[in-house]
Amino acid sequence: MYLEYFGFKEMPFHVTPNPRFLFLSPTHEEALQHLRYGIEDKKGFIVLTGEVGCGKTTLCRKLLEELDSRKEVDTALLLNPRVSETQLLRGIMKELGEEVKARSSNDLLDKINDVLLERIHAGREIVVIIDEAQNLSFEVMEMLRMLSNLETYDQKLLQIILMGQPELNEKLKEERLRQFRQRVLVHYDLKPLNQMEVQLYVLHRLSLVGSNGQPQFTPRAIKKNANSSLGIPRMINNICDKSLLSTFIRNGNEVTYWDVRRALKDINRLHR
Question: What percent of the chain is modeled with pLDDT above 70?
Fold first, then answer.
């Protein structure tokens, strides 16, 4: 609606994850480095946690882009964690492009072991990424632990990245997951953006859609957004989108504190 008014090539504040719009704040850069380190050094289990909307999925898609550009890496992305042990193994095999005939979890585990060994001997690496991992059942996490036991004399056969909300941290503290927890060698907790980073984040996204410095967000508008969003990128996007709409409606050329106030009222009304 406000695209032509501001001269944007596309919407700057989509809430859908798009690695092209990734803003590498210090915490996001550090998180990405942890993921790269865990994969390159074959650490086995890698855990990334953070609040809803803090950018985990966008980071995941950025990582996938990097991995897919490396021809020797095969990836399996699982977006639905509410699965049984058998469904988990079938999902991994399907993502790796393998035909699945085995039915029992033991047969599937043997088949995966054969496939992984074959690919490792061919010089390939395998990375499994599971999103919303806080929803994994204990039984499925035990199966993942068994998968992590698959190894040669000198390396793990696959790297497993678990991405989830803070509840995943609480789940990993459970006594029955003690053996699983001991296998997690890389763990990073993604933090929200501070006020300065919120300002840089907004400028970054505007620059990607063709903004020539207009419209500007006033300092009070940025502060109100940062405080109200708690530094969560998804919330920042939502507030910015509706603030730009408010500015457009009043034929303004800068986003003010009052535009953000109107945006927040609109958002609160929708979520009642």
Answer: 99
CB 203, CB 13: distance < 8 Å: no
Closest by CA to 17, choosing from 244, 234, 243, 238, is 234
Q: Does residue 192 have a cis bond before it (omega within 30 degrees)?
A: no
3-state secondary structure of 16: coil
DSSP string of 31-57, one letter each residue = HHHHHHHHHHTT-SEEEEE--TTSSHH
Contacts 24+ apart (CB under 8 A), 146-151: 146/109, 147/109, 147/112, 148/44, 148/45, 148/183, 150/112, 150/113, 150/116
Could you give the domains of the chain?
A: 3-16+193-270 (1.10.8.60), 26-189 (3.40.50.300)
For 145, other C-beta atoms within 10 Å of its C-beta total 18
Per-residue pLDDT, 42:
87
User: With left for phi above 0 and alpha for psi between -120 and 50, is residue 164 left, alpha or beta?
Assistant: beta
The predicted model scores a pTM of: 0.90
Q: Tokens 């991994």 correspond to what residue?
A: 92
pLDDT band at 68 (very low <50, low <70, confident <90, very high): confident
Query: For residue 269, what pLDDT is reported?
Result: 83
Unique residue bearing structure tokens 């929200």? 192
Confidence of residue 29 (pLDDT cuts 50, 70, 90): very high
Q: What SS3 class is residue 102?
A: coil
